[in-house]
Each structure stands twice: as structure tokens, then as C-alpha cells.
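Exercise: predict the fold of this chain.
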Amino acid sequence: MKALMLIALVALVSCRSESEAPAPWIKPQTTVLGCEDYQSIEVRPGVLYNNVWNKHADESGASVQCLESKTVDGVVEYGWSWSWPQDKRVIYAYPQIKRGASPWVRNL
């Protein structure tokens, strides 16, 4: 259910008009778990994956995406932070959580 709510939120945010200025946002206090490309961390809900599949589209090479966590009312929550260029309409990466078997794992 939380995943569906997250997808709906992303869809709503991505539908704002070009003339709307982005609202100021203050990043909450978090713990950085890692910022390595394609890093994966196993946690109780599944495997967090730092999927930066199109990072090369940022020609500056200065962007970063990180896995993070924070504790709210004694419950650990996981998420991502990123710094991607805002001047182009390009998808650089996406946060990914894997649960169960993956269709991309080959049998050895």
C-alpha cells in the first residue's frame, strides 16, 4: 500500500506545470547508508538498490544519489536523496526496492 502511495505521489509531483516554481524543500535529518553507484543494502522490507542506470546523461559528472535512513517514533524508514541537474527533462536514475526473486538474476 505504501508503494502505491509513493507511486501516486511521484505521478502527482511530475504533473506540475512548467510555470510553477518548485516549493522550497528542507531535507529531513537522515543517516547516509551509501552513495556508491548500484550499491545494494539488505534491510527488513527488501533490498534497497541505488539504481543510477542513466547517470552518464549528466555531463557534469557532479550528481549523486544516496541510500538513506531515518528513525521516526522508533521505526526505521528508508529512502534516497539525490542531486541531479534540473535544466533538462531527463531521467537519470530511480530508487529501487527489490522484494523476492528478480527477473534479472541469471542462474549460475
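Check your answer against the key: The two ends are 34 Å apart (CA to CA).
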